[in-house]
TrEMBL record:
Pfam families: Response_reg
Protein name: Response regulator
Span of domain Response regulatory: 5-120
Residues found modified as 4-aspartylphosphate: 55
Length: 121
């Protein structure tokens, strides 16, 4: 599998750390971590990123769905949602952004590997 440069958007530092550790153990690079939309957009405009993994509920006024829309309109890179939300309305809105995967929290290593394999192929 190709080594990906992955950017994580997650407002919970423990979850961000766990994701980072998991992805590094799988063999990918972490090129950045943000807690909010504005920080992520600022970084993503200038970084070489192969994939964004974002939570839906992040710090600030904009959420992960807003970030996905920004990515679709300006950056055109793959992204994965990872979220603990169970709201059908929010999940439907998220799916309208056409994520490469939607992984429920807590994200299992096997599910992450499957999602990444489809992107790195």
């Amino acid at each position: 599998m190709q080594k990906l440069h992955i950017y994580i958007v997650e407002n919970n530092p423990l979850i961000a750390f766990a994701l980072k550790k998991m992805l590094l153990n799988i063999g990918h690079n972490i090129c950045g971590i943000a807690e909010c939309y504005n920080e992520a957009v600022k970084d993503l405009r200038v970084m070489n990123v192969d994939l964004v993994i974002t939570d839906i509920m992040i710090k600030g006024e904009e959420n992960g769905i807003d970030l996905a829309n920004y990515i679709n309109h300006h950056l055109h890179i793959p992204f994965i949602f990872q979220s603990s939300t169970t709201s059908a309305d929010i999940i439907n809105l998220a799916n309208q952004t056409h994520p490469n995967a939607f992984l429920p929290k807590p994200v299992s290593k096997s599910e992450m590997i499957k999602a990444l394999a489809m992107i790195a192929a």
